[in-house]
Protein backbone atom coordinates (compact mmCIF):
# COMPACT_ATOMS: atom_id res chain seq x y z
CA UNK A 1 0.00 0.00 0.00
CA UNK A 2 1.33 3.45 -0.92
CA UNK A 3 0.06 6.83 0.27
CA UNK A 4 0.62 9.88 -1.90
CA UNK A 5 1.18 13.36 -0.46
CA UNK A 6 -1.22 15.87 -2.04
CA UNK A 7 0.26 19.11 -3.35
CA UNK A 8 -1.35 22.21 -4.77
CA UNK A 9 -1.92 22.43 -8.51
CA UNK A 10 0.76 24.10 -10.62
CA UNK A 11 0.07 27.56 -11.95
CA UNK A 12 -0.19 28.06 -15.72
CA UNK A 13 3.28 29.65 -15.66
CA UNK A 14 4.76 26.69 -13.79
CA UNK A 15 3.18 24.24 -16.22
CA UNK A 16 5.13 25.84 -19.09
CA UNK A 17 8.41 25.25 -17.28
CA UNK A 18 10.02 21.86 -17.94
CA UNK A 19 10.63 20.39 -14.51
CA UNK A 20 12.99 17.55 -13.61
CA UNK A 21 11.18 14.72 -11.81
CA UNK A 22 12.68 14.17 -8.36
CA UNK A 23 10.78 11.57 -6.38
CA UNK A 24 10.91 11.23 -2.60
CA UNK A 25 9.87 8.16 -0.64
CA UNK A 26 9.24 8.89 3.04
CA UNK A 27 8.78 6.75 6.13
CA UNK A 28 5.86 8.84 7.38
CA UNK A 29 3.81 12.02 7.31
CA UNK A 30 4.75 14.16 10.30
CA UNK A 31 4.60 17.74 11.51
CA UNK A 32 8.39 17.75 11.94
CA UNK A 33 8.54 17.53 8.12
CA UNK A 34 6.58 20.79 7.85
CA UNK A 35 9.20 22.87 5.95
CA UNK A 36 9.17 20.27 3.18
CA UNK A 37 5.38 20.51 2.87
CA UNK A 38 5.62 24.31 2.82
CA UNK A 39 8.29 24.16 0.12
CA UNK A 40 5.99 21.93 -1.95
CA UNK A 41 2.92 24.14 -1.46
CA UNK A 42 4.75 27.43 -2.05
CA UNK A 43 6.61 26.32 -5.18
CA UNK A 44 10.13 26.52 -3.74
CA UNK A 45 11.18 23.26 -5.41
CA UNK A 46 9.54 24.28 -8.68
CA UNK A 47 11.62 27.48 -8.63
CA UNK A 48 14.66 25.19 -8.74
CA UNK A 49 13.34 23.28 -11.74
CA UNK A 50 12.31 20.23 -9.72
CA UNK A 51 9.01 18.38 -9.84
CA UNK A 52 9.17 16.87 -6.35
CA UNK A 53 6.64 14.13 -5.69
CA UNK A 54 6.27 12.14 -2.49
CA UNK A 55 4.93 8.73 -1.50
CA UNK A 56 4.75 6.89 1.82
CA UNK A 57 5.02 3.10 1.47
CA UNK A 58 3.39 0.66 3.87
CA UNK A 59 5.26 -0.86 5.60
CA UNK A 60 7.67 2.04 5.97
CA UNK A 61 10.81 0.06 5.07
CA UNK A 62 9.54 0.04 1.50
CA UNK A 63 11.60 3.21 1.13
CA UNK A 64 14.68 1.00 0.77
CA UNK A 65 13.03 -1.01 -2.00
CA UNK A 66 12.18 2.21 -3.84
CA UNK A 67 15.82 3.33 -3.67
CA UNK A 68 17.03 -0.09 -4.81
CA UNK A 69 14.76 -0.31 -7.85
CA UNK A 70 15.32 3.31 -8.84
CA UNK A 71 11.70 4.44 -8.49
CA UNK A 72 12.79 6.98 -5.85
CA UNK A 73 15.57 9.54 -6.04
CA UNK A 74 15.86 9.92 -2.27
CA UNK A 75 14.43 8.60 0.98
CA UNK A 76 13.41 10.52 4.10
CA UNK A 77 13.65 8.90 7.50
CA UNK A 78 15.90 8.22 10.46
CA UNK A 79 19.67 8.17 10.01
CA UNK A 80 19.76 5.04 12.16
CA UNK A 81 18.70 2.98 9.13
CA UNK A 82 21.60 3.89 6.77
CA UNK A 83 23.94 3.70 9.79
CA UNK A 84 22.76 0.19 10.67
CA UNK A 85 22.98 -1.00 7.05
CA UNK A 86 26.47 0.38 6.37
CA UNK A 87 29.16 -2.31 5.92
CA UNK A 88 26.47 -4.97 6.34
CA UNK A 89 23.91 -4.65 3.55
CA UNK A 90 24.11 -1.39 1.63
CA UNK A 91 25.88 1.96 1.70
CA UNK A 92 23.71 5.08 1.77
CA UNK A 93 24.84 8.70 1.75
CA UNK A 94 22.94 11.35 3.69
CA UNK A 95 22.84 14.73 1.94
CA UNK A 96 20.40 16.81 4.00
CA UNK A 97 18.51 17.08 7.26
CA UNK A 98 15.04 18.40 8.02
CA UNK A 99 14.38 17.60 11.71
CA UNK A 100 17.13 18.70 14.09
CA UNK A 101 15.42 17.56 17.29
CA UNK A 102 13.43 14.59 18.56
CA UNK A 103 9.66 15.22 18.09
CA UNK A 104 8.46 12.95 20.91
CA UNK A 105 6.73 13.63 24.21
CA UNK A 106 6.30 11.70 27.46
CA UNK A 107 2.74 11.48 28.77
CA UNK A 108 1.71 10.55 32.28
CA UNK A 109 -1.57 10.25 34.10
CA UNK A 110 -2.32 13.10 36.49
CA UNK A 111 -0.31 16.28 36.90
CA UNK A 112 3.26 16.52 35.56
CA UNK A 113 4.23 19.12 38.16
CA UNK A 114 7.62 18.29 39.65
CA UNK A 115 8.31 15.53 37.11
CA UNK A 116 11.92 14.33 36.89
CA UNK A 117 13.35 11.86 34.39
CA UNK A 118 14.54 9.73 37.32
CA UNK A 119 10.86 9.19 38.20
CA UNK A 120 10.68 6.80 35.25
CA UNK A 121 13.02 4.24 36.81
CA UNK A 122 11.18 1.06 37.85
CA UNK A 123 8.12 2.12 35.83
CA UNK A 124 6.34 0.67 32.79
CA UNK A 125 6.68 2.76 29.65
CA UNK A 126 4.53 2.33 26.55
CA UNK A 127 6.23 3.36 23.30
CA UNK A 128 4.83 3.28 19.79
CA UNK A 129 7.04 1.53 17.25
CA UNK A 130 5.06 1.40 14.00
CA UNK A 131 7.47 3.78 12.24
CA UNK A 132 10.65 2.00 13.25
CA UNK A 133 12.97 1.73 16.23
CA UNK A 134 13.85 5.39 16.77
CA UNK A 135 11.38 6.02 19.61
CA UNK A 136 12.93 3.37 21.84
CA UNK A 137 16.46 4.16 20.69
CA UNK A 138 16.20 7.81 21.64
CA UNK A 139 14.42 7.30 24.96
CA UNK A 140 16.89 4.67 26.15
CA UNK A 141 19.80 6.87 25.06
CA UNK A 142 18.29 9.73 27.07
CA UNK A 143 18.12 7.49 30.13
CA UNK A 144 21.76 6.46 29.72
CA UNK A 145 22.84 10.09 29.25
CA UNK A 146 21.17 10.89 32.58
CA UNK A 147 22.82 7.95 34.39
CA UNK A 148 19.56 5.98 34.60
CA UNK A 149 19.78 2.24 34.05
CA UNK A 150 17.59 1.54 31.03
CA UNK A 151 17.08 -1.99 32.37
CA UNK A 152 15.27 -0.51 35.38
CA UNK A 153 12.32 0.28 33.11
CA UNK A 154 9.77 -2.16 31.67
CA UNK A 155 8.83 -1.49 28.03
CA UNK A 156 5.75 -2.22 25.97
CA UNK A 157 6.66 -1.15 22.45
CA UNK A 158 5.65 -3.68 19.82
CA UNK A 159 2.13 -2.36 19.27
CA UNK A 160 0.48 0.33 17.17
CA UNK A 161 0.62 3.85 18.60
CA UNK A 162 -3.17 4.34 18.57
CA UNK A 163 -3.68 1.04 20.37
CA UNK A 164 -1.06 1.91 22.99
CA UNK A 165 -2.61 5.36 23.45
CA UNK A 166 -6.00 3.81 24.14
CA UNK A 167 -4.48 1.28 26.52
CA UNK A 168 -2.53 3.97 28.37
CA UNK A 169 -5.65 6.05 28.87
CA UNK A 170 -7.42 2.90 30.02
CA UNK A 171 -4.85 2.25 32.73
CA UNK A 172 -1.95 0.29 31.21
CA UNK A 173 1.54 1.39 32.19
CA UNK A 174 2.84 4.50 33.90
CA UNK A 175 4.02 6.56 30.92
CA UNK A 176 3.32 6.74 27.20
CA UNK A 177 5.81 8.04 24.62
CA UNK A 178 4.42 9.22 21.32
CA UNK A 179 4.92 12.06 18.84
CA UNK A 180 4.44 15.55 20.23
CA UNK A 181 1.44 16.32 18.03
CA UNK A 182 -0.47 13.21 19.15
CA UNK A 183 0.51 13.86 22.76
CA UNK A 184 -0.87 17.39 22.78
CA UNK A 185 -4.03 16.23 20.99
CA UNK A 186 -4.55 13.56 23.67
CA UNK A 187 -4.12 16.11 26.47
CA UNK A 188 -6.62 18.42 24.75
CA UNK A 189 -9.18 15.58 24.80
CA UNK A 190 -8.34 14.01 28.15
CA UNK A 191 -7.79 16.21 31.23
CA UNK A 192 -6.65 13.16 33.22
CA UNK A 193 -3.29 12.98 31.37
CA UNK A 194 -0.50 15.53 31.02
CA UNK A 195 2.76 16.02 29.15
CA UNK A 196 5.68 15.34 31.46
CA UNK A 197 8.45 16.10 28.93
CA UNK A 198 8.74 17.39 25.38
CA UNK A 199 11.87 15.84 23.93
CA UNK A 200 12.35 18.69 21.46
CA UNK A 201 14.03 20.39 24.43
CA UNK A 202 16.57 17.58 24.84
CA UNK A 203 19.34 18.68 22.46
CA UNK A 204 20.34 18.38 18.81
CA UNK A 205 20.01 15.10 16.97
CA UNK A 206 19.65 14.35 13.21
CA UNK A 207 16.18 12.86 13.66
CA UNK A 208 15.07 12.95 10.01
CA UNK A 209 17.41 13.01 7.03
CA UNK A 210 17.41 12.55 3.25
CA UNK A 211 19.60 9.83 1.77
CA UNK A 212 20.32 7.75 -1.32
CA UNK A 213 22.35 4.66 -2.28
CA UNK A 214 25.96 5.84 -2.46
CA UNK A 215 26.81 3.95 -5.65
CA UNK A 216 24.03 5.67 -7.61
CA UNK A 217 25.19 9.25 -6.93
CA UNK A 218 26.35 11.10 -10.06
CA UNK A 219 27.23 14.77 -10.73
CA UNK A 220 23.69 15.21 -12.09
CA UNK A 221 22.21 13.78 -8.88
CA UNK A 222 24.42 16.05 -6.76
CA UNK A 223 23.14 19.05 -8.70
CA UNK A 224 19.53 18.00 -8.16
CA UNK A 225 20.24 17.44 -4.47
CA UNK A 226 21.66 20.96 -4.20
CA UNK A 227 18.56 22.43 -5.85
CA UNK A 228 16.35 20.35 -3.58
CA UNK A 229 18.26 21.73 -0.58
CA UNK A 230 17.75 25.29 -1.84
CA UNK A 231 14.00 24.72 -1.92
CA UNK A 232 14.08 23.08 1.50
CA UNK A 233 16.20 25.88 2.97
CA UNK A 234 13.58 28.34 1.77
CA UNK A 235 10.88 26.20 3.37
CA UNK A 236 12.76 26.17 6.68
CA UNK A 237 13.35 29.91 6.52
CA UNK A 238 9.68 30.57 5.72
CA UNK A 239 8.46 28.51 8.69
CA UNK A 240 10.93 30.17 11.07
CA UNK A 241 9.86 33.63 9.93
CA UNK A 242 6.11 33.06 10.33
CA UNK A 243 4.26 32.55 13.57
CA UNK A 244 2.11 29.44 13.11
CA UNK A 245 -1.00 31.45 13.95
CA UNK A 246 -0.51 33.36 10.70
CA UNK A 247 -0.79 30.18 8.60
CA UNK A 248 -3.25 28.17 10.67
CA UNK A 249 -5.41 27.53 7.58
CA UNK A 250 -2.50 25.78 5.87
CA UNK A 251 -1.86 23.72 8.99
CA UNK A 252 -5.54 22.74 9.05
CA UNK A 253 -5.27 21.56 5.44
CA UNK A 254 -2.04 19.68 6.05
CA UNK A 255 -3.21 17.98 9.27
CA UNK A 256 -7.01 17.75 9.01
CA UNK A 257 -7.33 15.08 11.72
CA UNK A 258 -5.67 17.27 14.35
CA UNK A 259 -7.36 20.22 16.09
CA UNK A 260 -5.85 23.28 14.43
CA UNK A 261 -5.05 24.93 17.78
CA UNK A 262 -2.94 21.89 18.63
CA UNK A 263 -1.10 22.04 15.29
CA UNK A 264 -0.42 25.76 15.80
CA UNK A 265 0.86 25.17 19.33
CA UNK A 266 3.21 22.34 18.37
CA UNK A 267 4.52 24.23 15.33
CA UNK A 268 5.41 27.27 17.42
CA UNK A 269 6.97 25.01 20.05
CA UNK A 270 9.14 23.43 17.36
CA UNK A 271 10.04 26.86 15.98
CA UNK A 272 11.22 28.03 19.41
CA UNK A 273 13.16 24.86 20.22
CA UNK A 274 15.31 24.45 17.09
CA UNK A 275 13.45 21.60 15.45
CA UNK A 276 14.37 23.27 12.17
CA UNK A 277 17.74 24.96 11.70
CA UNK A 278 19.20 24.27 8.25
CA UNK A 279 19.58 21.48 5.73
CA UNK A 280 23.05 20.64 7.09
CA UNK A 281 23.39 17.72 9.48
CA UNK A 282 24.72 19.02 12.80
CA UNK A 283 28.10 17.44 13.56
CA UNK A 284 27.48 17.60 17.29
CA UNK A 285 24.04 16.03 16.97
CA UNK A 286 25.40 13.40 14.58
CA UNK A 287 28.17 12.39 16.99
CA UNK A 288 25.70 12.14 19.85
CA UNK A 289 23.28 9.94 17.89
CA UNK A 290 26.04 7.68 16.54
CA UNK A 291 27.17 7.03 20.10
CA UNK A 292 23.59 6.29 21.10
CA UNK A 293 23.18 3.83 18.24
CA UNK A 294 26.46 2.16 19.10
CA UNK A 295 25.53 1.86 22.78
CA UNK A 296 22.23 0.29 21.71
CA UNK A 297 24.09 -2.40 19.76
CA UNK A 298 23.00 -1.29 16.26
CA UNK A 299 26.58 -0.38 15.33
CA UNK A 300 29.91 -1.97 16.23
CA UNK A 301 31.24 1.55 16.71
CA UNK A 302 30.20 5.07 15.63
CA UNK A 303 30.88 6.07 12.02
CA UNK A 304 32.79 9.24 11.23
CA UNK A 305 30.66 12.09 9.91
CA UNK A 306 32.26 11.97 6.45
CA UNK A 307 31.58 8.24 6.15
CA UNK A 308 27.82 8.81 6.28
CA UNK A 309 27.20 12.42 5.29
CA UNK A 310 28.01 14.47 2.19
CA UNK A 311 27.24 18.00 3.36
CA UNK A 312 28.24 19.66 0.07
CA UNK A 313 24.73 19.93 -1.47
CA UNK A 314 23.37 21.53 1.72
CA UNK A 315 26.31 23.93 2.14
CA UNK A 316 26.16 25.01 -1.49
CA UNK A 317 22.42 25.54 -1.16
CA UNK A 318 22.86 27.76 1.88
CA UNK A 319 25.34 29.91 -0.07
CA UNK A 320 22.83 30.29 -2.90
CA UNK A 321 19.94 31.18 -0.57
CA UNK A 322 21.82 34.04 1.13
CA UNK A 323 22.91 35.63 -2.18
UniProtKB/TrEMBL annotation:
Catalytic activity field: N(6)-(pyridoxal phosphate)-L-lysyl-[4-amino-5-hydroxymethyl-2-methylpyrimidine phosphate synthase] + L-histidyl-[4-amino-5-hydroxymethyl-2-methylpyrimidine phosphate synthase] + 2 Fe(3+) + 4 H2O = L-lysyl-[4-amino-5-hydroxymethyl-2-methylpyrimidine phosphate synthase] + (2S)-2-amino-5-hydroxy-4-oxopentanoyl-[4-amino-5-hydroxymethyl-2-methylpyrimidine phosphate synthase] + 4-amino-2-methyl-5-(phosphooxymethyl)pyrimidine + 3-oxopropanoate + 2 Fe(2+) + 2 H(+)
GO molecular function, one term: metal ion binding
InterPro entries: NMT1/THI5, SsuA/THI5
Cross-referenced SUPFAM superfamilies: Periplasmic binding protein-like II
Gene3D superfamilies reported for this sequence: Periplasmic binding protein-like II (3.40.190.10)
Co-factor requirement: Fe cation
Protein name as it appears in the record: 4-amino-5-hydroxymethyl-2-methylpyrimidine phosphate synthase
Amino acid sequence: MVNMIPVVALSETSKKQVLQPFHLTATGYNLNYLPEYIALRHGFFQEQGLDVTVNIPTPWDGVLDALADGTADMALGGIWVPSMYRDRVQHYTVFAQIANRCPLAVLKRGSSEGFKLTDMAKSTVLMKSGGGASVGLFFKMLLRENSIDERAVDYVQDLDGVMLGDLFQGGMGDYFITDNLSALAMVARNPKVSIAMEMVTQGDIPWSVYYRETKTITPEILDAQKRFCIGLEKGIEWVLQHDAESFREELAELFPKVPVNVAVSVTNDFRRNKMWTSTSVSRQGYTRWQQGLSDAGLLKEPFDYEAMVDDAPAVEAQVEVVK
